[in-house]
Design goal:
Elements (H helix, E strand, L loop, with lengths): L7 H9 L10 H27 L6 H12 L4
Length: 75
């Protein structure tokens, strides 16, 4: 059997410590996060549509085509 000693002040400090919270985002931080989330969802919809139009199964060739078309597009 093990025996652990603890200082009561250490336990009290641990129990009364406030949890670390991230600083609140401002208007532009929220705006940018919303914009990025919107773009991500639009890209996922476009990729899902592309997969569906090409048989509905994600194969290696479709994966390469998605990468060529959406990740590294030729301008």
């Amino acid at each position: 059997m093990t025996y652990v000693t603890a200082d009561i002040r250490t336990i009290a400090d641990t129990l009364s410590a406030k949890p670390e919270t991230a600083p609140q985002k401002g208007f532009w931080g929220k705006f940018l996060e919303t914009l990025m989330e919107s773009r991500r969802r639009a890209a996922e919809r476009e990729i899902a549509r592309y997969i569906e139009l090409n048989g509905g199964v994600l194969t290696d060739s479709i994966d390469r085509a998605i990468e060529d078309r959406f990740v590294f597009p030729k301008r």
